[in-house]
Amino acid sequence: MSGCRTLRKSSYLVSITLGCLVLSLSLSIAGINEWTSIGPPGLWSSAIAIDPQNPDIVYVGSAYNQEGIYKTTDGGIHWQKINIKYGGVKCIVINPLDTDVLYAGTSRGGVHKSTDGGESWVITNWGLPRGAIGDYMVQSFAVDPKDPERLYAGRDLFGLYRSIDGGGHWEPTDVQKAYVRDIAVDPVNSNIIYSGTDYSDEWTVLCGVLKSTDGGDSWRKMNEGISGQSVISILDIAIDPHNPEKLYIATAASGGGYNSVYKSTDGGESWQNTNNNMNAIFTRSIVLNPTNPNILYAANEPLSNILFGSMYKSTDGGGSWTSIEEGLTTHVLQEIAIKPVDPEILYLGTWCGGIFKTTNGGENWDDITDGTMKANLVRHIAIDPSNPSIIFASASVGLLKTIDRGITWIRLQEGLPKYFYPKSMAFDPRDSHRIYLGSSHEGLFLSEDGGQSWMNSGDGLEDPGRIYTIVISPHNPDMVYVGTSEGIFRSSDGGQTWDRPPNDFTDQKVNDLIFHPEDSNVLYVAGDRGIYKSIDSGLNWEEKMTGLFGYNYHITMDSHDPNVLYVNNSNNGPAGGVFKSTDGGESWLFKDQGLENINNWGRRRMNVLIIDPEDSNVLYCSDSGNGSEFTGIYMSTDGGDSWTSIRTDFMVDNVVYDLKIDPENHNTIYAATKGNSIVTYTRADSNFVLMMDDQVVLQNSKDNRIYLELQNCSDICHLQADILYDTTCFQITSVEQTARARVTSMFFHSVIEGGIQIIQSSISGCIDVGEGSVVEILFDTGSCLEGYYPWNITNTVLGDPLGREISPLCKDGTVAILSGPKGDINSDGAVNALDVVLTIRIAIGSYPNPTEDEIRAADCNIDGVINVTDVLGIVNLILGLKHCPP
Fold this sequence. Notes:
The protein is mainly beta and 886 residues long. 3% of the residues lie in helices and 39% in strands. The longest helix has 12 residues, at 833-844.
């Protein structure tokens, strides 16, 4: 009997030297059981630091966990990603005397220190207490410019800590139980320190602006002039380097006037509001020109939908301000950094909009976001039904489009408001160039040229609020419905005019509206507080809540059986989850097996659910956590009866707002995330890619095709690959060559080895490859494709001419262990890259005294010899490329 267990599949590089023969084999699974970001580019740049000794070196930190830090050494032309463990980067500080020494404060991992310009990092948290969930959030950081071994770290609700040994040990100050947003050290007298905290007596007596004159031993409030001014947070502190008695603070206010910037000329003893004509109540960052401190720059963040954020500049010490936003494509601004030797050059970080740079003091800005920065916030994905290579992303920076599945992106702006936040999209089924686009507060727009230009759509839709869904009737494409925060609106003339239908749910938000595919009289609505069904084209509605609980519902219908419906609710209360109906909504069953809880209260927010259009038993759903902490993304293969997490480390803390299935390959899904733009995931039983020396790609899929593709190579004089298949199941129907490059000679021949047909594909002579040469082999699957793969691919250039099978793949896609722990050399319960390394060591004799069990585990093909075949076997075990025997 063979046992099956699920193994994680990834990419590995194996290099083996046997005598003078070198085998270099790269096995890459492109998106198989892994998540990969395809953009659009963007970055939540929560921190920027410029090297004071080499100002072309700039560090940008991302608040998202998987992005870490980006570094440029040429002023932003090129960027290099630097990984940091345990959480998004909240702040970056450079030692002014030794700029190879960096400190980064993170949202989970505390203080990270580098002594080699960011190439490597160590965690220095000794003395910092853990938070409630075991994290070490460090919100702000400062280095004493006179003594760089003296450091200050601001925690979330743990106050301010100090180190006198470069972060080796930390001790608390008497600023405790306060959210320390920023720390600034007087450049002349470094015993003077300012701290900005959330302005609330709920946490501590010390709050607002705090000042120490003894190096952090004691602190006192400095709030005269800002107390009682509706200020809720002190976000940034800027000190005039020529006159440290003069300083500015950037604040967040709760309303009651535009009062987000304050100025002090007496060392913080008193403050005066200096917003004047700055139209802002939430200033995130403020910097001074180091050579002329009367020149200031302030970055503002919008407050909800009341005000847009903008960049402002003052040339009179804050007396007046001018908006400087030419070239900016986003209004959620975060951090500013100014080049010390050339203060006309500034860098601006944004929330998901990337990095901008000005070289003329803010007269205009250039987007210098690197294509590798893929940490945008995407709320909605729309795939062109007539061309799946065309994908639209509704992002925090507006509407973006790719025509090549994410290789390149463009921003669509013509006819749309300058700062536009799209929420939903729908294609006209008669013409996919005709697109409806719903926004957060700007109404509904229509494009008739594939999104290149837009026009406002419709009389009667003056104030729809947020448009959450756009639905076109499958029975009459001129009949369009939109579900909004203000109920339902309806058009019967393709969006030219709108009205409110009877019983339009004006008392609640409408998340979804779906039509029965066969009966035009039947509609369903998912709202804030329930599920409703109409059997008379929306004239009357009946609540369908039997078995449902919670609120804020979303609904999905099985296209193969319209009586099967799924509901997920995104309430932040107990027992949210997935519900299923098999009787057209008359009753519902809770389907939560395998779904995790967010916290000890059992809260769960299921944000979106989709059904595989080819296999209705396959479902995907995402849990958006509490809106900021992501819990999971799940797949079901049994119609929702049980769920399995398909989250990987790449998806940690990435809220998923939308899911879509690739129309051409239903095993591939797209997810719109808060932290990694759009990411893709392909199930293990779909396409895999086998790459050899970056010269040959063998690719298979369950669509009965094998592709042999030659790419990125030239002057290759001999390549060969074998394709094995079970003659009782498969028959080759054709072999076709796509001449995208000149191939001097190519031939196929076959041999029979014990009922197994081996098709040997060889190229002789030399080839000159341009974009690649593709050979496609088509199979007639007979009756054997169901349940397992009756064929296999092996490489015969460097050995194993018979291409013997090494490990089977079970019917459910998991790997079978035939006898003993095959492949698991170190018996840790998983077959992974370490086992590949151990097998290589056994094969070349560098493994000291392997045990009998280790030898048996390494001998995948059970021939008594550990060699290159066994290495390939373990790699195949990891990738799961075989089938189970009968």
